[in-house]
Amino acid sequence: MRNNIYQLALRCKNISDERIGTDRNLIPYKNILFTDYTVKGNVDEYLAAIDDLRFALVDKYPNVAYELRLHKEKFGDEKIIHFTALSTIVDCVLALEERSNAKKIFISHSSKDKTIMEKFSDYILQLGIGLSNEDIFCTSIEEMGIRNGEDIRRHIKENVLGADFSFLMISKNYKDSEICLNEMGAVWAADNHVRYYLLPDVDFKEIGWLCDTNKADKLGSSVVLDALEEELTGFYGLPHKGGIWSRQRQNFVDYLASCKK
After folding, report:
1. Backbone dihedral region for residue 30 (phi beyond 0: left; psi -120 to 50: alpha; all else: beta)
2. Could you say which DSSP state residue 148 is in?
3. Is residue 154 domain-shared with residue 172, that is, in the same domain?
4. 35-38 long-range contacts, Cβ below 8 Å, gap at least 24?
5. Is residue 163 classed as helix, strand or coil in its secondary structure?
6. Are 136 and 60 members of one domain?
7. What is the torsional sign of CA 147, 93, 8, 10?
8. Predicted pLDDT at 141
C-alpha cells in the first residue's frame, strides 16, 4: 500500500487531470495578437488538495512544501503559470515517492529451479516477510519477470542495477547454465547487497570458484532464513510477523527437505 504522501499527491494529479482545464485565448491589440490563458474547473477543490499535500510534506520534504505554498499564494496573479508549477511539483512528488517505495529483490537462478523459486517467493519473501510480487524480479515466475516483447538483456540489466538486493541461487542447474553465469557477472559488477544461497543439490565443496564459500549459506537453514528476514524487515521498515513468519519459514524448510529425497 502506498503511503499518505503518495495518495495525497495522486489525488492532486487526478483532480488536475480530470477536473481542471485551460483555455488559450487570442487577444487583438493594435493589429497584434496576444495569447492569454485561463484556468477553469474545480480550482478550489484543487487548491484545497494542494494544501493537504503541503502539510503532509513539511517534515519529509520541507523545501517542496515551501514551493507549494508560494505558488498557491501567487495563484491569483497569473493562474496558468502557477497552476503549471503546482502540477509539475506534484509530478515530482509522485516520482520521489515511487522511487522511495520501490523494494527490489533480484533473484539470479536457473529456470530449471523454477518451482523452488516459487516456494521461496511465496513462503519467505511474500507470506513470511511481507513483500509483494512487484518488489521481486524473478525471470522464471510469470508475474515477476519479463513481459512479452521486452528485451530480456536490457530488462535484466535494468533490474540488476536497480535492485537493493541480489540473491544468487546456486544449484547444479545454475553451474551448468551459461546465461546464469553471465547474469552472475552482472550481479558482481552491480555489487548491491549480493547474497549467495545454495540449493539442496549442491554443497560447499561443489561450488568451487562460483563464490567465496565464507559468504555462501544453505537456503534450507532456519538460522539463515531468520537472518534474511531480520535484514529485509529492517532495511524496508517492515513489521516482524512473528508466528506467521515461523510457520512460513518452516513450510519452506520442509519443502526443501523433501527435494533431497
Report:
1. left
2. T
3. yes
4. 37/79, 37/80, 38/79, 38/80
5. coil
6. no
7. negative
8. 46
Q: Give me the DSSP letters along 187-229.
A: HHHH-SSEEEEE-TT--HHHHGGGS-TTTEEETT-HHHHHHHH
Q: Which of 30, 31, 67, 35 is nearest to 50 (CA)?
A: 67
- Number of domains the chain contains: 2
The catalytically annotated residue of 183, 206, 229, 231 is: 183
CA 31 to chain centre: 55
Question: How many other C-beta atoms can be found within 10 angstroms of the C-beta atom of residue 214?
Answer: 7
Distance of CA 61 to the CA centre of its chain: 20
State the Cα torsion 151-156-158-164 to the nearest 10°: 160
Tell me the C-alpha distance between 231 and 129, whole Å.
Answer: 10
Q: Burial code of 110-123, b = ≥16 C-beta within 10 A, e = fewer?
A: beebbebbeebbbb
183 is catalytic: yes
Cell output for 96: 520521489
CB contact burial 93-106 (16+ within 10 A = b; e otherwise): bbebbeeeeebbbb
- pLDDT class of 76 with cuts at 50, 70, 90: confident
Q: What is the pLDDT of residues 196-249, one digit of tens each?
A: 899 988 877 766 655 555 578 899 999 999 999 999 998 888 899 999 999 999
H/E stretch holding 20 = strand 20-29
Last residue of a domain, one of 45, 67, 101: 101
Instruction: Provide the domain limits for residue 69.
Output: 4-101
Q: Are strands 105-108 and 20-29 parallel, antiparallel or unpaired?
A: unpaired
- Dist. CA 232–CA 240, nearest whole Å: 10
Predicted pLDDT at 41: 86
